[in-house]
């Protein structure tokens, strides 16, 4: 038997048809029956007299949305006391002011005293108004609500308990939202509540325990407890070291310190945790979250049901490995240790990883074969993605070569002095390169990305979180194991972490205290989703790879077909593949144009005609739906332009600032194109496919950036570094440099130390 207040609750719940609670947040979207418990701090205003109408309206909107999705919603609400207090105060003040106006005149109204109001009377006065408010709000969404007032004793009278259960089931069957509240007008008097300046308030413990009891009795799938704190913390909220606990497991109570309770009500966080654990034991999943924060209260309930990382989720299933938050902290600490190593030690780690890629090729290819077979059996990947997923001996050899290039070029990256200035006598300033911090790299269907990015992070001294697609799970697992084996050489195994938990990408993008830079590697949709989801974390990458090749009137016949074939057909799924071919108008109906079309047909490239190109043809290919399309396959658009200036304008209007090419023998035209096209990579008489970190001699790349801040184009080691300033002085103070001070600024540039070119 477990006791709530002074009333025993039987801890063995009735059998549940749907079994145990959900093990992971991602399963919450399957919740059918949901109880939302609204604490006093959520429902009432800051002055604890009256209701927070805007907040309440938002909650009703979310509950209505879920109800209209076919879920069965119930609300356990506080607020009757606060609403009644507002009404009674108004009546008392009005009555007193009228009497005083008759006897003392208007000047005495400011001295009207408000008497202490008894809480049960407030509840009696407020319950009808609170329910009327709920009814009016739910009516806006064509939903009917019904009020049920209970006391804890109702659960211990078997007949009353059956009646309550039957009533609730009947209301849910009729698509009605039950609004349940403790009958505060008749419950025993509570302990005095000092938080309300001497005004007694009905105990909110009753509503915490009521919500848990109701959830178990009604076999609900999910209980959402909304309060005025974000969730459960490992130390009192507001303290310097307090961290929000994402997932709470039974038995973790010993590691938690409970702080003060909320500003209203008798039930603090400890009472909520006890109620949550009791509900969890009964088979109901529980989330405790903040229902008062203005930035999240408008979608907190729907976010929880969608499985987003909001508040604290109670789970009986404890994962075998660390949480992603713990992995982020491990990557941070490991990255700092990695940055403190000697450059030669970091290079040794990368050389070792390169050797492991070739030494362990059989194991790697076997794991990759499993991924390919599973993807083909499930039929969930398109052919271009299957090609990206596939590894081969030649790919692994190329990876190893690239990693050795990174190792060779990494010995003068971290800690390199890029500027020296003598500020004054004996006061020297240096600007040196340092790692960015912790990188989150999210990649799809490309297991070869893992060793590349790991090597670049190691070379630049950054901690690394890797989130790969589940379609490459086996390949990623063994490649990460090899990376950690190489890192173990110098005791920095934790610097590179592979996120294997069921974290949603959107949740990872919210970890702004753990992650310093997000680098997406995948489809344009993935990049756009990450850019949208990232909260306070910069994203490096490109959302689209709409690459152009412009064929000028002075183009070489021998070069045109070779460059176009390589740009489009060598690897059409790549982000640096040709998508739009611009042809000068004078080349139409010439042998060169015919050769281009014939070559594309032989390569089975589907052609889409741009509007101007279609106007020149009697029977044209299918007209393009948009000139801003990344096909990622053996398809491309052909459009006609009148000049190199028009080609540049077209690229600026429809391109993605990735990679654009001109084919011409006219140097003046080429230089105009190179100088005026505003893209990350602009080439003359070369394939778009050269836009690659390995081909640029960077060893590898974490991605291609089309942003204009920090790094642009293929991003290698340099793009993963930032700088810090080191000032070395000798008892210097700013006041010495004032008008009447003894020192003068010199601001002399000093020579840089010789770079290590070995």
TrEMBL record:
The keyword Amino-acid biosynthesis applies. It comes from the Eukaryota. GO terms for molecular function: ATP binding; glutamate 5-kinase activity; glutamate-5-semialdehyde dehydrogenase activity. InterPro entries: AceGlu_kinase-like_sf, Ald_DH/histidinol_DH, Ald_DH_C, Ald_DH_N, Aldehyde_DH_dom, Asp/Glu/Uridylate_kinase, G-glutamylP_reductase_CS, G5K_ProBA. It is found in: Mitochondrion matrix. Its EC number is 1.2.1.41, 2.7.2.11. This is Delta-1-pyrroline-5-carboxylate synthase. It comes from Pampusana beccarii.
């Amino acid at each position: 038997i477990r006791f709530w207040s002074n009333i025993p609750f039987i801890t063995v719940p009735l059998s549940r048809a749907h079994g145990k609670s959900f093990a992971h947040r991602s399963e919450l979207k399957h919740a059918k029956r949901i109880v939302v418990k609204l604490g006093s701090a959520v429902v009432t205003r800051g002055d604890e007299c009256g209701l927070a109408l805007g907040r309440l309206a938002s909650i009703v909107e979310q509950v209505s949305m879920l109800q209209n999705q076919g879920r069965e919603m119930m609300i356990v609400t506080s607020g009757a006391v606060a609403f009644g207090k507002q009404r009674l105060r108004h009546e008392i003040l009005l009555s007193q002011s009228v009497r005083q106006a008759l006897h003392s005149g208007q000047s005495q109204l400011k001295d009207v005293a408000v008497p202490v109001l008894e809480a049960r009377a407030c509840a009696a006065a407020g319950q009808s108004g609170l329910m009327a408010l709920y009814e009016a709000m739910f009516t806006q969404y064509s939903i009917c609500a019904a009020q049920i007032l209970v006391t804890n004793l109702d659960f211990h009278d078997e007949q009353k308990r059956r009646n309550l259960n039957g009533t609730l089931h009947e209301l849910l069957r009729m698509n009605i939202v039950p609004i349940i509240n403790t009958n505060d007008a008749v419950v025993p008097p509570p302990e005095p509540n000092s938080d309300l300046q001497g005004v007694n308030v009905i105990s909110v413990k009753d509503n915490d325990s009521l919500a848990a009891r109701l959830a178990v009795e009604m076999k609900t799938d999910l209980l959402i407890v909304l309060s005025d704190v974000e969730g459960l913390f490992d130390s009192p909220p507001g303290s310097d070291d307090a961290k929000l606990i994402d997932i709470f497991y039974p038995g973790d109570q010993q590691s938690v310190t409970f702080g003060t309770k909320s500003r209203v009500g008798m039930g603090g966080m400890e009472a909520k945790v006890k109620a949550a654990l009791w509900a969890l034991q009964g088979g109901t999943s529980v989330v405790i979250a903040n229902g008062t924060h203005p930035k999240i209260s408008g979608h907190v309930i729907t976010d929880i049901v969608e499985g987003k990382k909001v508040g604290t989720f109670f789970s009986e299933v404890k994962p075998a490995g660390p949480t992603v938050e713990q992995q982020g902290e491990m990557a941070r600490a490991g990255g700092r240790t990695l940055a403190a190593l000697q450059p030669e030690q970091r290079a040794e780690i990368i050389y070792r990883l390169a050797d492991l890629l070739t030494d362990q090729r059989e194991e790697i290819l076997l794991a990759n074969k499993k991924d390919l077979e599973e993807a083909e059996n499930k039929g969930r990947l398109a052919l271009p993605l299957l090609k990206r997923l596939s590894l081969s001996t030649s790919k692994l050899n190329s990876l190893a070569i690239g990693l050795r290039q990174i190792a060779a070029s990494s010995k003068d990256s971290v800690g390199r002095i890029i500027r020296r200035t003598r500020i004054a006598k004996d006061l020297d300033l240096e600007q040196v390169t340092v790692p960015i911090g912790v990188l989150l790299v999210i990649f799809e269907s490309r297991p070869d990305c893992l060793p590349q990015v790991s090597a670049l992070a190691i070379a630049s001294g950054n901690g690394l979180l890797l989130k790969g697609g589940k379609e490459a799970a086996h390949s990623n697992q063994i490649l990460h194991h090899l990376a950690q084996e190489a890192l173990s050489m110098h005791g920095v195994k934790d610097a590179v972490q592979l996120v294997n938990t069921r974290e949603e990408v959107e949740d990872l993008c919210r970890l702004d205290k753990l992650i310093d830079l997000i680098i997406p590697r995948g489809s344009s949709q993935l990049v756009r989703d990450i850019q949208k989801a990232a909260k306070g974390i910069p994203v490096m990458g490109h959302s689209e790879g709409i690459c152009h090749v412009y064929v000028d009137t002075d183009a070489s016949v021998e070069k045109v077909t070779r460059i176009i074939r390589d740009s489009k057909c060598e690897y059409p799924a790549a982000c640096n593949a040709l998508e739009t071919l611009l042809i000068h108008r004078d080349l139409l109906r010439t042998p060169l144009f015919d050769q281009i079309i014939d070559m594309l047909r032989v390569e089975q490239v589907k052609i889409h005609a741009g509007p101007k190109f279609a106007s020149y043809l009697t029977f044209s290919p299918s007209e393009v739906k948009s000139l801003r399309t990344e096909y990622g396959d053996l398809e491309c658009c052909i459009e006609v332009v009148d000049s190199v200036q028009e080609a540049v304008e077209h690229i600026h209007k429809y391109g993605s600032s990735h990679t654009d090419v001109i084919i011409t023998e006219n140097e003046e035209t080429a230089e105009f194109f190179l100088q005026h096209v505003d893209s990350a990579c602009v080439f003359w008489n070369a394939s778009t496919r050269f836009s690659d970190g390995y081909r640029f001699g960077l060893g590898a790349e974490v991605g291609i950036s089309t942003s204009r801040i920090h790094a642009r184009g293929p991003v290698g080691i340099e793009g993963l570094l930032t700088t810090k300033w080191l000032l070395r002085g000798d008892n210097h103070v700013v006041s010495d440099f004032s008008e009447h001070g003894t020192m003068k600024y010199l601001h002399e540039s000093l020579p840089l130390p010789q770079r290590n070119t070995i």
